[in-house]
Write a structure and sequence with these properties.
The protein is an all-alpha fold. About 85% of the residues lie in helices and about 0% in strands.
Amino acid sequence: MSLRDFSLRRYRKRILPLGILVLLTVVTGKACGASWDGLLSGLVKGYSFLGHLFPPDWKAFPEMIGPAVESIVIALLATLFGTLLSLCFAMAAAANISYRWLRSLSRAIIAIERSLPEIIIILILVAVFGLGPVPGVLALTLGCIGMLGKLFADAIEEIDPITIESIAAVGANKGQIIVFGVLPQIMPRVITYAMFRFEINIRLSVLLGAVGAGGIGYELDSAFNMLQYHRAFTALIVTLLLVFLTERLSGHLRKKVKAEGALK
């Protein structure tokens, strides 16, 4: 192997992006005040902090069941309401069944909602409705529109146009086209996307609970604020189990829906 094999010309396409990445890392690190000393001291403090968590307070475990169930209910209701709302926006945003002006308006609303994090939405809703699960359900419901609305609209635009044209040819109106031509073709995707969103809502319900939406997230945040670290570790274990079991169940159901859709 000669020295020409290690020339800059040979590797310039890799060296230039790597140099830019290193430069951006250094500049952004300087801008936000990050340093190696801070990272190392933080790791040392984090290691000592973990010692305060052990052992978990197993006596508090039964008290965490109710908040965990509340988080599941919040995520479930938000997924249900969000899926229904997203379907409405998707119908209006699909180019093959909607009017141009309505499609542009719906796509704009979906894009605006997608640009707003759920944490910002719930802060506004908490100010309006107060603390509790209601603002959490509303925030996650609105959060579904940005994601599911776009996915459903794209799925509608990808369906077989022959089916829609055949139904329209026999004199069907818009409603009949949607019921008999659109929904049967996109329903497997609707169920799959909705279950995936349910997984996301479970994790978000924990996060939103820390800012007043209730559930296991509220218990976790309260325990940390009151310096009850053993209780907080118990809440953390319940949270991990909740997320893990939900993802496994949702993944199993999604595979089953895909398999049934393939058989059809």
